[in-house]
């Protein structure tokens, strides 16, 4: 016997109070010169009693050209072992190898992204060490740390990064599958709290590319195929991360990849030359702008252009980061975006990634020099160069008169204003002991675990086989699962399907391994299983009633599984425990997800659809929004 729990929403009793969003003091509410005991030894820009615009004016007036150039770059660095400043990872800079420390005290960078995960306390200690290093620079400009998404459950690290101790949700597709802006805001609020605890103040998300090309390689971290659904999600996420105004407990957002990386030709990823084209043969560019308009209206602070270049529009066929009519014309003038534009990583310099030299993503302007590329990016209206440290190019552009220093000031002012608004100048350290308590705390982890369960999307359920009854004596055969783990969950596991009452098959959307190890992180190519794999699946399905559990990081083309398996689940990143709880309806857990994209019936249908147009595969296997409910609870034995 077991008792189904109350509805999930009744479980959401906050175990710890979320920090209220405090916003920065606006200029109107503080006097330029504090009346009470001014400390004449504090420089105006370091004086928290002055208003931000005055502090910015003061700081900018003190900066050398080199110090300004340093602000224009954000570079990935690792958090060092045991929370130390990493001294092993080398980046080549003009024939010299640099580590973290000289990036701060020689190149004068103050923006970094970190993608590895340490235990929370060490992560916070690392962050504090980085800030202490920055305090030793001439102007003491605090460091801003950014991160790619790191809150998804993953068996293996893919294009989102290791979650370590952070709470584990499904990928953002799973948030979209639940269709709830309230949940999306709560999700972002939890990420914000965990980021704040370790000093991460910039989220390199939401990724609001609309998946109109089913093969699009980075679909997993999007909100799917529907621009309106994506728009409702991005508004909720920005509210959760930033609050209504950017303040001392906000995390700033970098909405990406403008103007939408969905229409990738053949789905090939735009990190690589074979994926440089976005095609707009359906004339649907405006559809992809819907979520960006929503993000701008919601006050999203930063936007990242896509690597790709547009084919089939009125715009020049050069990568969006170099594309002045797109960045200045469309994004700034037409859509009215006044925030920071940060380029995607590596537009200028060829760089080694996991041991392989990857070319600069200067798509359509490959033959330009590095200096010309830097100028084009600035001229396009981009404020900051991602994944680069080429400060000397900026200095040269100004000294040689190609770019006026006032152009740098426009971007530097915005970038520093962000630090002031986030409160980094006034409160630059975090409490490492508190980080240990906040990150992955039982309440946050539970919401993540619950969301993994709820996002489960039930695609087929022949003869209502699900939910399985928790009958003692049933025998299970499992592929793609750790059998010892299932045994530890008190299931009787047998070693062949013939001996089993039920079989479980856990798999993932097919993809083609192409090229370098880095490229293989982006799942490209066919979405269907090959003949060998299909034969093996059929043999299993013919031997025993099989529950298939497929990771949908792209819309799989699996008509034969829908036809032959006893039941088919899609998930978007979920633990084995989440799967079992949903399969057995344990504590009342049931699939609530609805497909965030349509699932095509064949690769021919995929090849025939138009890359920029949604919902246009012929006779899809499952439509957008498909998702069955359990029609009965699991019965007691
Ligand atoms: C003034 O600021 C300096 C530097 O932050 C500090 O060391 C000193 O104690 C302050 N003096 C007063 C009177 O607040
Ligand atoms: C990290 O900390 C552990 C435990 O204190 C210690 O044994 C190890 O030597 C440290 N590693 C490094 C590289 O400092
Ligand atoms: C920089 O470091 C890399 C990786 O260790 C090494 O292969 C290369 O030779 C170094 N280059 C210089 C100039 O020291
Ligand atoms: C999206 O929303 C717009 C404005 O509300 C509406 O006109 C349009 O039909 C919607 N599109 C879809 C696919 O729901
Ligand atoms: C996509 O990548 C594959 C594999 O590298 C290549 O064969 C194909 O031509 C690419 N498509 C385009 C449009 O470049
Ligand atoms: C770049 O130069 C190569 C070799 O000179 C040429 O084949 C190619 O078309 C040029 N590419 C562009 C975008 O101009
Ligand atoms: C979340 O799920 C994981 C994996 O099943 C489990 O180990 C962990 O205890 C769960 N945490 C909470 C707070 O429920
Ligand atoms: C499989 O599960 C068992 C029991 O939980 C665990 O000890 C073991 O490490 C797991 N193996 C793998 C490869 O994850
Ligand atoms: C498995 O069964 C044992 C013995 O009845 C029980 O103590 C344990 O809690 C069960 N474990 C799970 C994961 O249900
Ligand atoms: C089918 O895919 C598997 C990987 O799952 C691969 O090992 C095998 O070589 C492929 N077979 C054919 C015929 O392409
Ligand atoms: C499934 O249940 C939800 C919530 O009760 C309901 O809105 C939806 O219409 C149901 N779907 C189907 C296919 O019955």
UniProtKB/TrEMBL annotation:
Does the UniProt entry include the keyword Glycoprotein?
yes
Entry's Gene Ontology molecular function annotations:
beta-glucosidase activity
Enzyme Commission number(s) of this protein = 3.2.1.21
InterPro entries assigned: Cellulose_Degrad_GH3 (IPR051915), GH (IPR017853), Glyco_hydro_3_C_sf (IPR036881), Glyco_hydro_3_N (IPR001764), Glyco_hydro_3_N_sf (IPR036962)
Report the top EC class in one word.
hydrolase
**Substrates-to-products reaction catalysed:** Hydrolysis of terminal, non-reducing beta-D-glucosyl residues with release of beta-D-glucose
Keywords tagged on the record? Glycoprotein, Glycosidase, Hydrolase, Signal
Transmembrane segment boundaries: none
Taxonomically, which superkingdom? Answer: Eukaryota
Any signal peptide, and if so, which residues? 1-24
Tell me the Gene Ontology biological-process terms attached to this UniProt entry.
glucan catabolic process
Domain named Glycoside hydrolase family 3 N-terminal: residues: 65-416
Query: What family does this chain come from, according to its entry?
Result: Belongs to the glycosyl hydrolase 3 family.
Q: What is this protein called?
A: beta-glucosidase
Q: Which organism is it from?
A: Aureobasidium subglaciale (strain EXF-2481) (Aureobasidium pullulans var. subglaciale)
